[in-house]
Amino acid sequence: MTTTFDLNDDSLVVIIGSGAGGGTLANELAQKGIKSVVLEAGKRFKMDDIENDEWKMFGKISWLDKRYVEGPARLAKDFPNLPAWIVKGVGGATVHWAGVAMRFQEHEFKMKTLNGVIPGANVLDWPVTLKEMEPYYVKAELKMGVCGTEATGMPYHRKSSHYQVVAEGAKRIGANCEQAKLAINTEVRDGRPACQVAGFCMQGCKIGAKWSTMYTEIPKAEATGNVEVRPQSMVLRIEHDKTGKVTGVLYADKDGNQQLQKARLVAVAGNSIESPRMLLNSASSLFPDGLANGSGQVGQNYMTHTTGGVYAEFEKPVHMYKSTVVPGIVKEWQNNDPSRGHVAGYELEILHLGLPFMSAFMKPGKGGWGRELADSLANYDNMAGFWICGEDMAVESNNITLHPTEKDQYGLPVPVVYKTDHINDTRMRNHAYDRSKELFDSIGALKVNNLPPYPASHNMGTNRMSEHARDGVVNRWGQSHEISNLFVSDGSQFTSSGTENPTLTIVALAIRQADYIAEQMKKQLI
Amino acid sequence: MNKNKTAVPSPNLSRRRFLARSTVAAVGAGALGSALLSPAAWAASAIGDHASTTLLRMARDVFPHDSLEDKYYAQVMSPLAEQAAKDSDLQTLLKDGVAALDEQAKKRFGKVYLEVATEADRVTILKALQDSPFFQKIKGDLMMGIYNNQELWPRFGYGGSAWEKGGYVNRGFDENDWIEGV
């Protein structure tokens, strides 16, 4: 089971990252008999490492390597070093996610066709349609065990108090609220238990009821003998030959020694900050602006979701912490209806924060103190609320660049993340704040608190898919337009962000990509 | 605190809010503050009597929870002051920070921070200094010490870790007596 491959074995696929994209791709290829090495920058955590403790787990699993956030948005002031709240460890962000597994809507694949040119944005249609994605969504739902879907037949979770409060508010203002489709078992399935409703989905599911590549795809892949996972392996650069084909990956191992793993094919899946960073760091005389960057689009069009939070206080207890993190979703405004004053849609995802995180995010930044905040926190048990999750416009200048002088512990230039709102994001967020207040007022809220955005867990774009090479980085299979044996397998290949949480789509794309890679390898095309 | 139903009867929300906005609150805070005027030996030895009592007063102004006993604020300030006895940078940060508070207080109200009677006035002083490393250090430590203090979670109605009890699936996750089932 502990397969070890030779560094000079150039028949291997090298996958960089072990989260939703990389972990899934490794297992899909392994099941087809294709051998791969997975390079993961973070450690390998055990189930025992998972604790139901917000700050401890934040400190333990988060990607906290030095990064800068720039831009005029408030986020850059509140969290100057933390643009993204993701995981450095085997399993990647699938350790940290809430399990929300929704398909993109049809219109979200063709935002440009639908809305035309949007000034200040760099919107593009996906080179893929929902119809083409559907069979892969079914496979992804089956793999992950998504409740409330035809694919699994697994029932929804029962309705928590938190769900009931928000759903009643939605009902009273005529808005549609549905239980969330979650990749969290409601029955024993696939060797994993049913959910206990402990409420710590985002800190890592202690019992493994939630799908995470940490304990699903990765061990399954390893069990085939076709996969070797190398934790604490930070990629320094991707090498290529004089014809422009990638040939291997240079990385720093756990002892800080540099190793070069040869490869027949490289798949990049390090999340939307690290993935373009690797390509930019791999610049050479043949690719002076970075690998796969002939279009200049590597690192550009960084998208999160248009976010914010709304937490209302009531007279009576909600005890929102007694729930899956996301028990339901208000979907009323998920469509593209420009008459609202903004294009694209948003969802209100019922989401609880524990008291420690609530104290940090309710009024983040230097001014987050004082009696008003303390009074709200004193009312913690009577709070209900949600996270606003809306489509973020692709904006070319929202991007990942390399710091000109500062290096990190691996000797790599520190990434600089520039992210600010497009006017559409601002309008959408304000629309969401207004509708949220109506929703909560309808059930007697004593106070409604608007929370500003906090660091994104949903990171997309930066290596986007495009029909034409000039507009993006990869084609409809996540394959570099320029380098046929270089693939992107994570959310950085998203052309638009949609309003849905990205994980199910990342997994569906990885399954689809594995089929393509296998077929192309068989035909000796890569 | 909503869950503080045993020791100190908690006023309901609207009353608490009313108190917060009225001069009565200032009297209440002042009365609580008087208990802080006997500094613990640790703090006095590390940063002096005046600085230690000022810090405790400040702590209650940063995250004011009138029904929380002084000891919970002291529990946060205590290790900080102890550390300051060994860490000269921290000692300077705290001493200079208190001096800055007093200077602002004198400029605005003609007296030191501790003698400024109303919370609203003390908040004005704190706001003027809120961007300083001193203020942010105290705020950060308090945030962790109050809201990340497991001993206090029941007072806020927060359950914390639950997997060891089998989660909430059989412990009231769907109980709600004020919303009709939807």
From TrEMBL, chain A:
It comes from the Bacteria. InterPro entries: FAD/NAD-bd_sf (IPR036188), GMC_OxRdtase_N (IPR000172), GMC_OxRtase_C (IPR007867). Keywords: FAD, Flavoprotein, Oxidoreductase. The keyword Transferase does not apply. Residues 131-306 form the Glucose-methanol-choline oxidoreductase N-terminal domain. One of its GO terms (molecular function) is flavin adenine dinucleotide binding. The keyword Flavoprotein applies. Residues 397-510 form the Glucose-methanol-choline oxidoreductase C-terminal domain. Belongs to the GMC oxidoreductase family. It comes from Marinobacterium aestuarii. Pfam families: GMC_oxred_C, GMC_oxred_N. This is 2-keto-gluconate dehydrogenase.
From TrEMBL, chain B:
Pfam families: Gluconate_2-dh3. It comes from the Bacteria. The keyword GTP-binding does not apply. Residues 1-43 form the signal peptide. The keyword Signal applies. Keywords: Signal. It comes from Marinobacterium aestuarii. NCBIfam families: TAT_signal_seq. This is Twin-arginine translocation pathway signal.
